[in-house]
């Protein structure tokens, strides 16, 4: 079978099968609609013939009532088919959208990092939106338009073979002319879609960066870019509108010509006494109806081409699989666990290694402070522990169980993380804390808030846990956002905690709260702290100094702190507040030493 056809059928059967009853009903509604549409002109034809022949009034009234009844029924069927049409299309596309979102979430970070958010939205929503038409109208409408066209031509032949031949030839020519015109219009429509996508992308990016744009006085630059985009859009829009209008006029003229031809033949046949005046009216009415299936068929054929491109892209996405194979093992209980990194080598691309032969072991319940310059590989190390990537060599184990043997879901549930960049959603405080898990009772949430020291903040909320948090945590200070993230992790009760400490400075009161929250959170858990302040490092049992993806020092904090030859000792001696400043001071001192030598 032709591959595109196979693809269409697979997609249609996957998403239409579950709602086959509605599909059958829709097909029946469309066919009945066609039947009624063709029946009414016949009734009017008989009405005219009876009236001309001065037939009985009761017969005329009967025809009239029948005509009205059919018109009403036709409207009812049209409402029903529109409802079914929309229902079928949205059910199918929503299911496809959910499947794609679930699939994308299962893909590894390599996939996500090489694609922009805009591209993903376009893939999940844009392509699926374009398919809405495919699911409901395209196939059924194409079929019904073909049936309608065929029926009209058969009825023409039934009334007169001359009319039948003329209208069949006219339909063929009209179809070809319309197809050719549409082909001309497609490139400009594509260009228009491209420029609108760029424009809205530009707009959303600038609107989300309003604060930075204003603060840096970049308003004029943004307005200039805005103007440039609009001035690019305008001529394309004008051309597209011009082509659209000319297409409308040409197709109108085409069908006027068709009607003239049809009526001329019918008039000649009437004058020869071969047709009644009623039949001439029926011919006129069918000629008028002819434009509908012809225009629809060529529109649907073009849509099919567009749908083909979308289906191809959707299939491509569905055929992309995560490089991470899920395991089957589960981690039970929330006790602290040991972490082992054994000879880990990793690079985001094979030719650019980031971590080199990293080995260390952290006992259950111990706290490891990881320090290193920006870009040393600290975050990368954490990503490996979460199994967002797999190392190219070596093995990571939790309680001596290798990560790839564990279910990803189970592994990630056991690790809680608080990053510098707290992700808060435009949702209630409750949903932000439970991450939309309705099974967590409010008492547990309130307990978490009180443990983290957020009770006074909670009491200040007018609607308690139902209070809304602005998008991206608007209305909260950096410290409050961090504390909420602590409470979130506390509720999840993980075995391991990763703390990527915020480098920004907090006010002393919030700082005290954060310190208290950290103390509470770390109890009875294995912890990995990416420390930016030397004060935080004082919590660590062990210290790992990372330099260019290699461990330059690893050991007990107390021993390293007392060893005058250790790098950690030197860091502490610098008297700086942050790790970065101390590391830089250390490096500067090393360089001066070397220069002296
Ligand atoms: N997704 C990625 N794709 C490619 N390279 C990356 C990616 N993320 C990080 N890197 C590179 O890996 C190296 C280590 O980055 P990483 O973020 O682990 O450093 P870090 O020590 O956590 O730095 P920071 O303290 O600034 O967060 C850097 O050279 C960085 O450019």
TrEMBL record:
Domain ABC transmembrane type-1 positions: 24-306
Domain ABC transporter: 339-573
Source species of the chain: Dictyobacter alpinus
GO cellular component: plasma membrane
Compartments, as annotated in UniProt: Cell membrane
Pfam families for this protein: ABC_membrane, ABC_tran
Ranges that cross the membrane: 20-39, 138-158, 164-181, 248-271
Keywords: ATP-binding, Cell membrane, Helicase, Hydrolase, Membrane, Nucleotide-binding, Transmembrane, Transmembrane helix, Transport
Lineage, opening ranks: Bacteria, Bacillati, Chloroflexota, Ktedonobacteria, Ktedonobacterales
PANTHER family, per the entry: ATP-BINDING CASSETTE SUB-FAMILY B MEMBER 10, MITOCHONDRIAL, ATP-DEPENDENT PERMEASE MDL1, MITOCHONDRIAL
Predominant place of localization: membrane
Single GO MF annotation: ATP hydrolysis activity
Protein name: Helicase
Membrane topology according to the record: Multi-pass membrane protein
